[in-house]
Amino acid sequence: MTAEASTGDNPPVRVSTLELFFDLVFVFTITQLADLLEHHLDWLGLAQVVLMLGVIWWMYGGYAWLTNAVAPSSTTRRSLLLTGMAGFFVIALAIPHAFGSTGWAFGVAYLVVSLVHSSLFLGVGGPSAAPAVRRLALLNLVSALLVVGGGFVPPGWRYGLWAAALAIQIATPYLHRMTGYTVATRHFTERHGLVVIIAIGESIVAIGVGIAGLPLGTETITVAVLGLCIAYYLWWAYFAGDEERAEQVLAAITEPARKARTALAAYGYAHYPMILGIVVLATGVKTSVAHGFESLPWPPAIALGAGAALFLAGHAWFLRILGLTGVVHRLAATAGVLAAIPLGHWIAVAELVAVPLVMAAALIAEDIPRARRAGSSAVHTFGRT
Predict the structure, then answer these.
(1) Residue 353: phi, psi to the nearest 5?
(2) How many beta carbons lie within 10 A of that of residue 202, not counting itself?
(3) CA 47 to CA 125: how far, in whole Å?
(4) DSSP secondary structure code for residue 67 in this structure
(5) Average pLDDT, the chain
(6) For residue 313, which of 298, 330, 293, 289 has the smallest C-alpha distance?
(7) 281 within 8 A of 303, measured Cβ to Cβ
(8) Three-state secondary structure call for residue 9
(9) Overall average pLDDT of the 237-244 stretch
(10) Tens-place pLDDT, residues 55-70
(11) How far is CA 12 from CA 2, 8, 245, 322, in A?
(12) Cβ contact 268:174 at 8 Å
């Protein structure tokens, strides 16, 4: 990533190993959500995943903003962060039956995560950020209480209360002005990039789980490599230069409130469909590689194509917010991978071939003009020397 200029005694903040440890705990929720969706691959299961990931992603983002503002450099801060990590871990453990017997555990752990976040932010936010942090803490408390309340009521009411909590979170930036917040660009973009790459790793783990117990022959290796290719093109879409350009765009915004709004839109809202796409894709990949040369039922075939499509559409939204190129290419790839879904219903390996091919074609088409411009620039520079 590009370095953000430092001034005086305030060098650019880098992501700490403790934050990376925190992200590993958070990504366990991705694993649990994918496992839940695999066992309930229908509209009701998807609704549960959408709601739970929504409220979880909001609080993950809150902790990313927190450690962006202040490093976990003291024993007290590290201890509180550990408490937040424990809360996320319990949330993940409760996910498989969160709409049944463990809803109370999900809710109580979520409240702990929210309270720890507010305590840390209020303690270190500083005078300029205090009013904004107090308003944020109040809105987070309201949504957390809705999640807790939902955990103790019958499942039918639980959907409504957790949906209300998510609605409040989506509306929160519009209910109070984004003033008093500062964004350390390098840390902020690096933190979100790390959680994306770790989450993409979940789709690779799904390949290994999917082929566990199968004989390691040509067919098994073929479908496993094809699954790996899909994960690779997710990486390419996000990391092959665009994360650096995104950092540069965000760093160039000098007005604090506008920078905070842009950061929230790009790395909060637009990242949600990307993470959701990884969850859905992991479910589809796991089933597809396990039955690579068989006809897939419609649900896993749809999950494979729709998961990739969600990720691509989310990244197109991300690029659009930041004014970067590549939106058209990702939207074209989104349409292409959705069109490949019927192939999986015919035979799984056909969709496993089509999805990475479509993604590769779109991303290579995007890179060709860049490569030509870079080559032309190199020729001109060489000529001048």
Answers:
(1) -80, -45
(2) 21
(3) 35
(4) H
(5) 89
(6) 330
(7) yes
(8) coil
(9) 89
(10) 999 999 999 998 888 7
(11) 11, 11, 17, 21
(12) no
